[in-house]
Amino acid sequence: MQRDVEFEAESTDKAGGFIGTLYINKTENAALTLLKEGLATVHEYSAEGLPWARQYREAEVCFFC
C-alpha cells in the first residue's frame, strides 16, 4: 500500500521472533487499528509486556460489544 512504517522491538519470543509495535506513518499503531476493526486478536503472551497491552485488550473487547 506504499506507506512508510516503523517497527519498535520490545523483546523476542521463545522462537526468536520480535515482539513490538508497527507504526504506520510514524503515528498510527497498526495492531490497534486491526483490533478496532475486528481483523486481529490479542495474543496474551506477546502482549503482556507491551506498553499498549491494556489498549489492545480494550480495542478487542470493544469490537465485540
Can you give me a brief rundown of this structure?
The chain is of the alpha+beta class and 65 residues long. The chain has three helices and three strands, in the order βββααα. Helices cover 34% and strands 26% of the residues.
Task: Identify the notable features of this structure and list them briefly.
single chain; 34% helix
Tell me the span between the first and last alpha carbons.
30 Å
- Main β-sheet: number of strands, strand sense, barrel status? 3 strands, antiparallel
- What is the N-to-C order of secondary-structure elements (H for helix, E for strand)? EEEHHH
As a percent range, the share of strand residues is 25-35%
Structural class: alpha+beta
Number of strands: 3
Order of strands, main sheet, comes to 1-2-3
Radius of gyration: 12 Å
Whole-number average pLDDT?
A: 87
| Percent helix range | 25-40%
Taken from the alpha-carbon principal axes, the silhouette is globular
State the low-pLDDT regions, or none: none
How many helices in DSSP terms?
A: 3
Can you describe this structure?
This protein has 65 residues and is of the alpha+beta class. The chain has 3 helices and 3 strands, in the order βββααα. The chain has helices at 30-36, 44-47, 53-63; strands at residues 5-12, 18-24, 28-29. Strands 1-2-3 form a 3-stranded antiparallel sheet. α1 (30-36) packs parallel to α3. The chain is globular, with a radius of gyration of 12 Å. It starts with a strand and ends with a helix. The mean pLDDT is 87.
